[in-house]
Amino acid sequence: MDADYANIPDDIEGFDALADLPLQSADEQTRMWQQQGQYMLSDSGIHSVMSGTSAPGPGHPAGSVGAVEAAFPPSDLSGMLSPGTPLSSSGGTTNTPIPLDQGIGGPASNLTSIGGNFDEASDLADAASALPELVPLLEDEDPVVVGQASMMINQLSKTRPNLEIIINTPGMVEALVRSLDTAAPEPARWLAGTLHQMSQTPGGLAVIFKTGGVAALIRQLSSNIEVIQFYSITTLHNLLLYQDGAKEQVRECGGIPVIVGLLKKNNQKFLAICTDCLQLLSFRHPQTKLEICSAGGPVELVHILLNYNYEKLLWTTTRVLKVLSVCPESKVSVIRANGIDALTKHLTRAPHEPRGPNPSPRLLHNCLWTLRNLSDAATSQEIAGPLFERLINLLASSDHTVVSCSAGILSNLTCNNQKSKQQVCASGGIKALIEAIKRSNDQEDIIEPCVCALRHLTVRHDEACRAQESVRFFDGLSVLSRLFDVTTTLSVRKAIINLVRNLALCPGNCADLREKGVVAQLCGVLQSAYRDMQVAANGCPPETASGRIRASRCDDLAEACCGALQLLARDPDSRAALSQHCCQLLCQLLFLPTQTEAVPRAALGLLWELSSQQEVPNYLASHGVVLNRLAELAQHGTSEPCRQYAALLL
């Protein structure tokens, strides 16, 4: 039975969502606020207390400071908004600043005086004393007052010293969070921006988390103002990265389907942050993976791969798919969503395709890891030819990970799939796999999938005979002979032996395999396996059985050796050599206690193949204990082949 190639675990990598975006200096930010009016209020005279953008907190990526402003400066924010959602004074932002002297009285008058104090502030003490007065104004009944207070706090938050004062002002953050749910779109934008600034520091993250900010931010993800959505998702992203307990809160507050719903947006930087949030939430959390799938996540993720070229977005999207691909239920959803074709698109181009840029190494690795995880559940799928062409090309890569994953995918997709086997053979897969083994530097994580793929390609399809001959034609027999000397693990050796068995089905290969020393090597492996089984039967720890084959049970290895030698024994010279040197060993295998009769059956089959040589019946006739064992197996063997072989030998 063909075996699947094992899945690999999720990788652990951090993500700086906007690390490649330029930061703005304090002067540039000031000019930006003065010159742009479409999505920012006019300069309110608060820049007198600003000294620059806030610095990142310890452990935070420097590139995330001012991320929203860097990614979407005022002149570019219109690009985030859908054509059908224009902003107005009633439903969004306005181009007209709210005057400080509207004569509302009460809180508005206090606000005017506070604004004056800020305008004249010369040190932080003034700001510290004024900020507490803004706390009750954030929840004032007058929306104008709320808007002015929100704007002042937001502008103050642009500098690190003032930001620290905001974070430490009693009741300030609680008021910001509460007001976020009730404020009009314009103040909500300022409030969301302030929380985003706070999320650049450990202290800010902690107080947002403790005051219910996670739930409020998730609710703002449903805002019809995309700037608010962007502030909210970037703040949540920082919480997920650096705040303990944030992931659990996002899950408990129903954030998973909300974030999945945002994947329908068409802003690539926004989508990059959304997808990374999903990766952080789903990593090693099976329930989240299932929730992403039930919310339609695979369809949206595949859509992104098929329609975008922004490398960072493609990378974060494949990270989510890679996490989903290790979950049996999730991988089926990804396959059904056409995930294999979407991932294939971002592998290196095939030779016949127009020239174009190849994917970045990290994107290529993610695509290959994901495909390898998916491929063991796609063995019954009809796979498009371009995937096999790309994988075969990638076998020539100098990147160890690329070669290992490509061979693993080929191994899985050719498992019990005749059409896939024929496509790989027709695309030059056998030669490429043999060459990859030659270049492997004896690394078994490359050797094993390559050998398994060759094993699949050389049996049970219409072109199997030609494939068996192709292995010999491309010097594969010499390669296999050498592998017996460089491999040690049971799984790799068993794969090599089973490949030899397939190759022995072609009569033209048998003599060459003997000349290359493969028959003698198989006898050596069988002898070693017998010793290990003998030691294990005596109750010794399996680690002491053999330094070369580290396994608790060698039954499978012995069975595979006997099966391969039985086919090779059809060659007269090989049969003569085996009858002289292996008869005693095969009889000894009949007496070892095993959990099944697989080993005795295989040994009896090989003995029967050798019985045409006079040495075998002579040996059996001269050893009464062997004849008694044969009689016992002929009468009481649990398998029909075992009883038949024993009876024939008797």
Automatic annotation (TrEMBL):
- In this chain the ARM repeats are located at 129-171, 386-428, 428-463
Q: Name one GO biological process term.
A: cell adhesion
UniProt xrefs under InterPro entries: ARM-like, ARM-type_fold, Armadillo, Beta-catenin
PROSITE patterns per record: ARM_REPEAT
Pfam families referenced in this protein's UniProt entry, alphabetically: Arm
List the Gene Ontology MF annotations in alphabetical order: cadherin binding
Q: Which SMART domains did the record assign?
A: ARM
The entry's protein name is: Armadillo segment polarity protein
